[in-house]
């Protein structure tokens, strides 16, 4: 791969002190797996000579093999295909380090059907086949906490009031609080600039110690998802370098707001026109079909948008986490919001996901739903006006076992993502659920001892 080797050489000329390359593979639960290689081995990685077990994609959240699947495959190897566009320095590392994302390819040359990046590429290709190209922007919330824990193992806030006490609320959009964390904020912005991540804004969110970071729009949905998960890693790395803990856990505290992952999406045609716009405030008929597909697919795709036990702690009334398959114009209580905008910027905002998602699977779920809506001409119900929590005639699966059951039986998932992914992702979540079912919580002891 001479172009890849040339790109590597140019990178090393610009970063001559680089000692280590982190070869990063994104698994299905959103964890980074891979290897560190020294400078002398980097050329073999970019030449596509590195391998990893195919089962690396199917670890559970604790990095354990998927016991129900790994041995029946013989635990075979797959080839790591490098993406040189993701080769960037790691500014928070102690030593000069670079990172690069790879995807897995089967030994026979076919793309792995359970690689999250390949799954997203498939959804992009399906839309391209009918003449549409998604534009995506991601917004994600996170908590910035102390590395210390209390006596029960719970995280401790970094945000306090002006006399040193804990805050009852988070001072939404509070500039003074941003000033208090300016060292972290500036380090985050500097690191994002080094990695070429296009930050749009960083704001103080509603809960104590909670923030939101927004990325600019990308006309390449794969790049948008790559940037989202690279930014999450960057935020964690910068926080750790300052003896802080950044978490994208969906609901780290039961009595305050959780963290969401909102996706904004419009579609372009081959001429670059936004097909969601027809110069009217309500948008085009194609926008409504896209909304219809999103709503009709929500229950089947819920496990992609809320993949973990803790994900379901977010779904509470009046919490800005939607409880029903609803939509509305400029309505943040609905699952799908159509923000007010200039006609050329007409888009939908998908508000269901928590910040603990795998961004590639969440964006894939969104694009698969939009494809269904357009291809099957699914029209939505009337938009919600007012409080969507007052309209719960139909509801989303707000419990992990219910979402998993719907996912593993879903014809929609099988047709959109393929049977192998449906089976393996279901088995991973079954294995994780079994682990949680074996644990006895402090609340149970407090209740029963």
For the secondary structure, the number of strands is 15
Percent range of helical residues: 25-40%
CATH superfamily of the largest domain: Glutamine synthetase/guanido kinase, catalytic domain
**Unreliable runs, pLDDT <50, ≥5 residues?**
none
Mean residue pLDDT: 93
CATH class of the largest domain: Alpha Beta
Number of helices: 12
Distance between the termini: 65 Å
SSE string, helices as H and strands as E: HEEHEEEEHEEHHEEHEEHEEEHHHHH
Task: Give the DSSP E fraction (strand runs of 2 or more residues).
Answer: 15-25%
Give the domain tally.
2
List the helices and strands and how they pair.
Elements lengths: L1 H13 L5 E7 L5 E7 L3 H5 L4 E3 L23 E6 L5 E2 L7 E9 L10 H14 L3 E17 L5 E3 L17 H6 L1 H14 L3 E6 L5 E6 L5 H21 L2 E4 L13 E8 L16 H21 L21 E3 L6 E3 L9 E3 L8 H17 L24 H10 L1 H7 L1 H19 L4 H7 L1
Parallel strand pairs: 1-6, 13-14
Antiparallel strand pairs: 1-2, 3-4, 4-6, 5-6, 7-8, 7-10, 7-11, 7-12, 9-10, 12-15, 14-15
Helix pairs in contact: 3-8, 5-6, 7-8, 7-9, 9-11, 10-11
Write a concise keyword list for the protein shown above.
449 residues; 6-stranded mixed beta sheet; Ubiquitin-like (UB roll); Creatine Kinase, Chain A, domain 2; 12 helices; 2 domains; alpha+beta; 9-stranded mixed beta sheet
């Amino acid at each position: 791969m001479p172009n890849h080797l040339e790109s590597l050489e140019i990178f090393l000329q610009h970063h001559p002190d680089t000692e280590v390359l982190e070869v990063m593979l994104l698994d299905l639960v959103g964890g980074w797996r891979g290897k560190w290689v020294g400078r002398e081995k980097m050329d073999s990685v970019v030449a596509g000579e590195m391998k990893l077990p195919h089962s690396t994609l199917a670890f559970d959240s604790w990095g354990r093999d998927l016991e129900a699947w790994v041995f029946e495959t013989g635990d075979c190897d797959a080839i790591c295909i490098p993406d040189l566009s993701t080769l960037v320095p790691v500014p928070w590392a102690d030593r000069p380090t670079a990172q690069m994302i790879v995807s897995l390819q089967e030994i026979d040359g076919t793309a792995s059907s359970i690689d999250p990046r390949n799954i997203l590429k498939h959804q992009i290709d399906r839309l391209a086949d009918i003449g549409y190209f998604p534009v995506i922007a991601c917004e994600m919330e996170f908590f910035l906490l102390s590395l210390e824990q209390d006596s029960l193992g719970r995280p401790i806030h970094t945000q306090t009031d002006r006399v040193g006490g804990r805050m009852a609320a988070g001072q939404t959009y509070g500039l003074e609080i941003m000033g208090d964390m300016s060292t972290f904020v500036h380090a985050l912005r500097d690191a994002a600039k080094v990695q070429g991540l296009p930050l749009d804004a960083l704001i103080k969110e509603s809960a104590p110690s909670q923030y939101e970071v927004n990325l600019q729009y990308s006309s390449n949905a794969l790049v948008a998802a790559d940037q989202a998960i690279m930014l999450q890693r960057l935020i964690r790395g910068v926080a750790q370098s300052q003896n802080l803990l950044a978490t994208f856990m969906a609901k780290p505290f039961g009595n305050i707001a959780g963290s969401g992952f909102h996706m904004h999406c419009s579609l372009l045609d081959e001429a670059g026109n936004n097909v969601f716009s027809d110069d009217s405030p309500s948008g085009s008929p194609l926008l409504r079909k896209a909304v219809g597909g999103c709503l009709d697919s929500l229950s089947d795709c819920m496990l992609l948008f809320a993949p973990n036990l803790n994900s379901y702690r977010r779904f509470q009334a009046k919490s800005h986490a939607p409880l029903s398959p609803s939509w509305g114009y400029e309505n943040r209580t609905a699952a799908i919001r159509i923000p007010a905008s200039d006609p050329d910027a007409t888009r939908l905002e998908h508000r269901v996901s928590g910040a603990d998602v795998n961004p590639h699977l969440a964006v894939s779920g969104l694009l698969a739903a939009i494809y269904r809506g357009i291809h099957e001409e699914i029209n939505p119900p009337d938009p919600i006006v007012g409080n969507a929590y007052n309209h719960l005639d139909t509801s989303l699966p707000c419990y992990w076992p219910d979402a998993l059951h719907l996912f593993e039986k879903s014809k929609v998932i099988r047709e959109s993502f393929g049977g192998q992914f449906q089976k393996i992702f279901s088995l991973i979540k079954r294995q994780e659920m079994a682990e949680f079912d074996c644990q006895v919580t402090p609340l149970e002891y407090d209740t029963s001892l």
